Structure formats: C-alpha cells, structure tokens
Amino acid sequence: MMQGVASSVVTLSPDERARIAQRERKRRGRQRALERSRRASNTAQYRLSRRQRRRQRRRQAAGLAAKQVQVPGGPRIARADGRPVRSPRRDEVSTTYRRLRARHAATSRRTAQSRAAKARQTAGQIVAVHGADLVIEDCRITAWFRLWGRACARFTPGTFIAALDHECRAAGGRLLRAATRTTALSQHCPCGRRVPKTLGVRTHHCRTEDGGCGLTGDRDLVAAAPAAFIRFDDFDDPSTARVDYQTSRRVLRTGGPGLPGALSESTAPIPTPDTGPSRADAGTGSAAATPRTPRRKARRRERGAASARRTRTSTAPTPDEPPPPTTGGMMVTPDRHQHEPGCSTNPHHRTC
To answer: For residue 227, what are the contacts with CB-CB under 8 A and spacing of at least 6?
Structure first.
C-alpha cells in the first residue's frame, strides 16, 4: 500500500515577486543616486556624454555661450591602458553621498538576512515533511545563473541548498549529491524508460504506444521519484550514483493511484509565511525589522528550534532538477524564461 505519498514544490508567490521587483527598483535608484552624487562632486574626472557634446556643438554653431555642465554623463577619464587618471578612492564625496551609501549598505544587509531566514524556514519545512536524508542533483549554480540570471537572483538556489544541508545535518541526516550524467532524472520515467524532453516541456508522459507505462505527471515531480531509488558506491563521490530501476518499477506497479496523484501535483505545499505589510527592502521571504523590534527577537528564537531539528523522521532523498544538457546527442538551447524548481523523494514510498 502506498500510504503517505507526498510531494512538495517550492515557488515564489506573486506577492513575493512583486516585493522583489519593487526592492530591485529601489536598489537601482540608490545606485544611480550614488553615481550622480560622485560625478557632481568630481566633474573634472569624467568626460561629457555624446548627448552633452552634441548639445555643446549646437550651441557653438548657433553662436551661444558654452553651458556649464553640472553632472557629466560620460566615462571616467583614464589612461591608454584603461586605468583611471585618479583613483576613485581619492574622490571627494558629499555628506549626502555618505548617508546614502550607509543606507544602501544597511538595506543590503537586511535583504541578505531576510533571504537567509526564508531559506532556513523553507528548508526546515521540507525536512519536517520528507525526512533528514535528502538527495539533490550535483549541478553548478554558476551555469544556472548564465541561463536564468534574474530568476536565480530571486530564488537564490545556493542559499537554499546551503540551508537545506544545514537542516539535514542538524536533524541527524545528510544531504547527498547525485551526478546528472549517470542519473539523468528528468529524462527518465520511474519505470526505467528514457523519455527525452526539452526544457520547454513541463509535463512528463510515458507513452504506452512506445512501450511505456503510461505515467503522466508534472515533469519536476516525476523526475524526483527515481531519486528515491538512487544508490551510491561512495557517498562522497556524486559520479557513483546510479538509479535502481528494478525497485522503482516494482513500486510503480504496486503504487496504485496514490503515486500518480502525488506526481501530478504538489500534495505537501510549502506555505509562504505571513510577512505583514509590504516593504520593498525587506527581502524575499519575511519582512526585515530593525534590531529593536520584538519580531527580530522572535526570529532569533525560531532559529534555534527549526522544524527539521524537532523531527527525527526517516530518510528522504531530494533531487534538484536541472535542464538536460543534451537531447539525442544535440545541445539543447533552453528557454531562459523557464526554470525547474527543486523537488524531493523518499525511499519509503514518499515523494517530494
């Protein structure tokens, strides 16, 4: 009997995306204000922009006096090798610039703290549902940023994986990594048949006409199911990971309707914490408060008793699904607007 089958998908809510977008707009505005203040205080170290030079030429052709430019918009005056004539460290900065720089640094710290707190909270919820022994695919985060830079900056997968590893260790388990070349989870069905898919295909379908099992479900959740049957020759070497498809086929045949249902949609959603009033600079997960507010103290108390530490449940491998590198020997050009959220599985008939 397939009792207790559960799956989880971690995504950003529309409210979180809106807050992140607003926070990024404010960050870019502060950066522009800092640059403008520096240029205004050190006009002799910058050249005029093309637009400013064209305006001066028009005024000169019309017989008008040259207009004094308050803030030059061109590049910094540099030598032939590209090094500035005067180091930016020797620039004169105004009091407003110092205040804005301090506020920008404080906001960046609050954002980083909020992201780390959200990652710890989400990781604790995953470990509480799926156990302390998880499996993720051994992927390079730098490659993800080359493909989906803006999406990765919003989701911060590196911070989340680090928090997941910390929660697994705190609960007495371990976060294992499986090589994508030896497993290819997103390109296989739990029955063992290879089902090639491009990154734009988000639904898995093992066609019975081609000799498959007929399983249909969400691509990410179906890819997580074989990870429950990964075996390692060396736990510290991701390249030794192999999928035991014989056991996977037996579980698929005896799973009944519970397994396909869990692989079709998330049955254990990760809730988004109540963040209270919207605050642009608060980060992705929870509103960042000043050190004097009681909310900050409550958050500190939660850190010492994460849900992962309170649950001593059984193992639960969790792969983090990346795009397949090739399809049929040809390199696949992924859609940069698509991304694959992480999902996890449990060897004891529990999928994440």
So the answer is: 135, 178, 183, 185, 243, 317, 318, 319, 344, 345
d(CA 154, CA 27): 14
pLDDT digits (tens, 9 = 90+) for 272-327: 444 433 333 333 332 222 233 334 444 444 444 344 333 433 333 333 434 444 44
What are the tens digits of pLDDT across the range 134-152?
A: 999 998 888 888 888 877 8
Q: Which amino acid is at 161?
A: I
pTM of the model: 0.67
Assess contact for 204 and 219: CB atoms under 8 A: yes
Strand partners, 230: 243
Helix H or strand E encompassing 203: strand 203-205
Within 10 Å of residue 318's Cβ, how many Cβ atoms? 28
Return the structure tokens found at 259.
């397994």
52-76 in b/e form (b: 16+ CB < 10 A) is beeeeeeeeeeeeeeeebeebbeeb
In this predicted model, what pLDDT tens digit does every residue of 31-72 receive, in sequence order? 999 999 999 999 999 999 999 999 999 999 999 988 888 999
User: In the chain, how long is the greatest CA-to-CA distance?
Assistant: 91
Angle of the 95-130 helix axis to the 14-41 helix axis, nearest 10:
160
Q: How far is CA 246 from CA 56, 145, 253, 349, in A?
A: 77, 36, 11, 15
